[in-house]
Design a protein that fits this description.
The chain is 32% helix and 28% strand. A hairpin with a 6-residue loop joins strand 1 and strand 2. It has 6 helices and 11 strands. The protein has one domain: P-loop containing nucleotide triphosphate hydrolases (Rossmann fold, 3-Layer(aba) Sandwich), CATH 3.40.50.
Length: 232
């Protein structure tokens, strides 16, 4: 099966000389189409940095990133922005909804950022809201939504452009266990249904059974197993 996302010997160093800090140390990971991979590890281990590099939000100090077989680490900011808009869906710990936009308009903002809004975009927004049980909330503003509803809107927004890759950073942190599991089940189902690739940073080990694979980051190193067994 095709690798949608490849991170090859990624290192990230902040600062220089005696004050430099190596946050990521020669990490490699491949994520296949239809695969949902969880990233766990202690706070400060480099998980969110790794996710930001995977999503072209942050450049590595060294190493290569391939999305759909295209190397992206040396692309211009314009081309990186195009990849973020068209290939990647982001779900963050906080839903990060825009307070003055209705639920439906949160989704329609995505194609508008690309410079065009079509009837097909409107139909897709309506389809996603219906699929995620938000149809009755389409004209509500974020302040009127529950935490679970806000996070479902964030998921719908991340899916709006039918991205190849979904990246989620602690998506259940503000949810109770029942709502959190429902959110992750939605992600897992979408990954399988549409053959997407997904990476999720999480501290909640109760969600790991919904993932296909779990990797651990600690002290900037990546392990496939919790007890310090490095990836091959």
């Amino acid at each position: 099966m095709t690798n949608k996302l490849v991170l090859d010997h990624i290192s990230k160093i902040y600062g220089d000389g005696n004050t430099s800090v190596k946050v990521l140390d020669d990490i490699s990971l491949q994520v296949k189409a239809g695969e949902f991979v969880a990233i766990v590890g202690p706070s400060g281990a480099g998980k969110s940095t790794f996710l930001s590099i995977a999503g072209a939000l942050l450049s590595p100090t060294s190493g290569k990133i391939r999305i759909d077989n295209q190397e992206i680490q040396n692309l211009s900011e314009k081309n990186l922005n195009d990849i973020r808009l068209n290939k990647i869906g982001f779900i963050f710990q906080a839903a990060n909804l825009i307070p003055y936009l209705t639920v439906r308009d949160q989704l329609l903002l995505i194609p508008q950022l690309k410079g065009k809004l079509t009837k097909q975009d409107e139909a897709r927004a309506d389809e996603l809201l219906d699929r995620l049980g938000l149809d009755h909330r389409r004209n509500h503003y974020p302040e009127k939504l529950s935490g679970g509803e806000r996070q479902r809107v964030a998921i719908a927004r991340a899916w709006m452009n039918d991205p190849e890759i979904i990246l989620a950073d602690e998506p259940t942190a503000s949810l109770d266990s029942e709502r959190g599991r429902a959110v992750i089940q939605m992600l897992a189902d979408e990954v399988k249904r549409s053959k997407k690739s997904a990476l999720m940073v999480t501290h909640d080990k109760r969600m790991l059974d919904l993932c296909d694979r779990v990797v651990y980051i600690e002290d900037g190193k990546l392990y496939e197993h919790e007890h310090n067994e490095p990836t091959k």
